[in-house]
Amino acid sequence: MFKGINAIEFTKRFKSDADCFEYLLQLKWPAGFSCSRCGCTKAIKGRTWHHKRCGECRYDENVLANTVFHGVKMPLLKAFHMMFRLTAKKKGMSTVELGHEVGVQQKTAWLFKRKVQQMMKEDDDDEIGGNADVDEFLLGGYSEGKRGRSLEDKQAVLIVAEQLEDGRTGKIGLKHIENFEADTLGCAIEQITNPQAHLRADSYSSYKCLQQTMNLEIVKSEKGSALAQLHKQIMLFKNWLRGIHHKCSKEHLHAYLKEYVFRFNRRNKRKYLFHEMMHRMMNSFPHPYKYLINKCGCYA
Ligand SMILES: [Zn+2]
């Protein structure tokens, strides 16, 4: 019953907080209400619109409790509109834009978006197994470039991009790395790929080292043309980061890489993401402000 959803279907289906509530009820209790205290399946009206009261033991159950929606202060309909925009748009949205479109303060939009971002995590489907190219790149201010001697204020990222037979890019993977040593690169590659992957990289010494333990082929860089598709993906990622997030601190980078990979690898299933994300929100623990601040540092 939960299919992909486009903008027209979304506005038809979710007109009020009550519509949103009904939807979340079905996510929480797909087989119908069942009291978590006594197992009774009969429910009556609860204390508030987001409570269900057990018809037997009278336990008042908050539908939003123990989910990421716990503590969301704005009307549910606004949260749904934000989620729809964050999932339906190819690149996502900045919190300024989001707040403006939905009619909430930027801070409120920021907090909600951070919660959504935490749910944009890779799963087993993101693992790369076929032919894939590997490289790394630097982020940070005007000093972007290739492997410097020291990273200083720059951040290094490893990228793996699956190369399909028709020349297009399949899935990608991104990992923040501390340095360019073979062990570091190898460890990051192992997290993104499975052992069946056939990898290609340029002739950098660390990759040559990894040849002993990995299914890795060294290709001559020829001014980047050998790994042209991969370099295009690096450029697309950098453009996205600049366009949506403007600037990015070290603390945030991890979350942004995950968000980008999540979006990119699901680019052909975008209309299903709304439900997928709602499902994740209802099946994860609450992410209060303090938790997010500790995790992410500051506002962006
Ligand atoms: Zn009960």
Polypeptide structure, described:
With 300 residues, this protein is an alpha/beta fold. It has three domains: 1-27 and 70-119 and 266-300, no CATH class; 33-63, no CATH class; 126-252, Nucleotidyltransferase, domain 5 (2-Layer Sandwich). It is 41% helix and 15% strand. It has helices at 7-13, 17-28, 76-88, 95-102, 106-119, 182-192, 205-210, 228-245, 250-265, 273-282, 289-296, and strands at 43-45, 51-54, 60-62, 131-139, 155-163, 169-177, 198-201, 216-218. The strands form two sheets. The chain has a five-stranded mixed sheet with strand order 6-5-4-7-8, sandwiched between helices. A three-stranded antiparallel sheet has the order 1-2-3, with no helix packed on it. A hairpin with a 5-residue loop joins β5 and β6. Residues 296-300 have low confidence and may be disordered. The structure holds zinc ion. Zinc ion (ZN) is lined by residues 35, 37-38, 40, 54, 56-57, 59.
